[in-house]
Design goal:
This protein has about 400 residues and is α/β, with parallel strands linked by helices. The protein is built from 14 helices and 15 strands. A hairpin with a 2-residue loop joins strand 6 and strand 7. The longest helix has 18 residues. The chain starts with a strand and ends with a helix.
């Protein structure tokens, strides 16, 4: 049995997205064979770091390290985290999320040759939470190639939107100095393995460390599964799960596509999660649901759409949909294009193309036989490729042996 220290500067529970779910699912399984301990800052100003409102796993010990707006910075965070990690005396160190403070934590722990995980593009895009998205379009500039351009871009975005969390992180990480740049490169080189979620980011990482693995996120195929005897009647239900208020998620594109189909006489209900208020009667908000409530929502709908216009690193919603036997329409960008098996478990469309998206939705409305066929294929693809048990046993367990 190995002792594994998992450091995540953003972890909280219940989760706000795929990254937290991914970490919990992986290490809940790893903890069945190894001793796992999470090290998480407790600093809830701007973001609920370390806020644990419900239990997430009894097998994982959690240590919270308290910080405030002054001490949550490039010096104190890595110094204090190293101190508690050293006391634990781990055999392995795994560093997950952390935005712009993360490189300093990696550097402080480099003697352990840590395993790094980049669920998002932090360290490679320093704007927001690392999006490669600028002025409504995908941006292919990497901070490690064009640091001055990216610093100016991030600063302009912070000033425009008065982003409090981003501005605090930008200042306390010294992102406006060469120190962050040098620390990122040194940290990448120190890793024994680096896990990423799509080929785009893998190509960047491999320039600094060849030990890069492209690993999909997964799904609990027992919890996310199709309901038997599902009746397809009434309105055709199109689901968009996730942060619909985020412009990069593409809600407006899906909304316009559905509105076009309704004008053509199609009977559609667009179901969204979150609290976004839309006046149109064809849009229904299901509110914020817990992970345990999501399978029911997926099974209530006919298809799932991920209309993102930014480069999604992966797409947790996509694989959860497939596991529930819900065919998928997603944009041809980021990690999403690796999830869709074209014309088998769903369709890929160009980001931002309302007409192509409307056409893809209409194919399912017009051909219920196609919908049923793809529903079966969707479930099979999740069992073959995204079963958490398989991913952890085949990829993660060997890292700790």
């Amino acid at each position: 049995m190995s002792k594994i220290a998992v450091v995540d500067l953003l972890f909280h529970w219940p989760p706000d997205g795929g990254s937290r779910i991914d970490l919990k699912e992986v290490f809940s399984r790893v903890a069945q064979k190894h001793e796992v301990k999470f090290f998480v800052p407790e600093f809830m100003r701007y973001y609920p770091r370390g806020e644990i409102l419900t239990p997430f796993n009894d097998s994982i010990e959690l240590e919270l390290i308290r910080f405030n707006a002054i001490t949550y910075n490039f010096y104190h965070v890595p110094t204090r985290i190293k101190k508690v990690v050293d006391k634990f005396k781990p055999d392995y160190v795994f560093v997950a999320d952390g935005e712009l403070i993360k490189p300093y934590v990696i550097d402080a722990l480099r003697e352990y040759k840590p395993i790094l995980r980049y669920y998002s593009y932090d360290s490679f895009c320093i704007k927001d939470y690392g999006t490669f998205f600028h002025n409504g379009k995908v941006c292919n500039r990497c901070y490690l190639d064009t640091p001055l351009y990216c610093i100016n871009c991030s600063l302009a975005w912070i000033l425009k939107y008065r982003a409090r969390m981003a501005s605090h992180t930008f200042l306390t990480s010294l992102a406006f100095t060469p120190l962050l740049y040098r620390t990122i490169k040194r940290g990448l080189a120190s890793a024994s393995a680096i896990i990423v979620y799509n080929n785009y980011i893998a190509e960047i990482v491999k320039r600094f460390n060849p030990e890069c693995l492209v690993v999909p996120s997964g799904v609990d195929i027992e919890r996310f599964s199709p309901v038997s005897g599902k009746e397809r009647k009434g309105k055709f239900k199109v689901l968009m799960a996730g942060r619909v208020d985020d412009p990069g998620k593409g809600f407006d594109i899906l909304y316009r596509a559905c509105k076009k189909l309704i004008a053509m006489g199609r009977d559609i209900e667009l179901v969204i999660t979150g609290e976004k208020k839309v006046r149109d009667e064809f849009v229904r908000s299901a509110g914020w649901l817990t992970p345990d409530e999501m399978p029911g929502l997926y099974n209530e709908c006919d298809i799932s759409v991920v209309p993102s216009i930014w480069m999604e690193p992966f797409g947790m919603v996509a694989v959860e949909s497939l596991a529930c036997g819900i065919p998928l329409i997603a944009t041809r960008t980021g990690g999403l294009q690796n999830i869709i098996e074209e014309c088998k478990n769903g369709f890929l469309v160009a980001p931002g193309d309302v007409d192509e998206l409307a056409s893809a939705i209409d194919r399912f409305i017009s051909d219920r036989g196609l919908l049923e066929k793809m529903s079966v294929a969707a479930r099979k693809s999740s069992e073959d490729r995204y079963d958490w048990d398989k991913i952890v046993s085949q990829v993660y367990m060997p890292l700790f042996e």
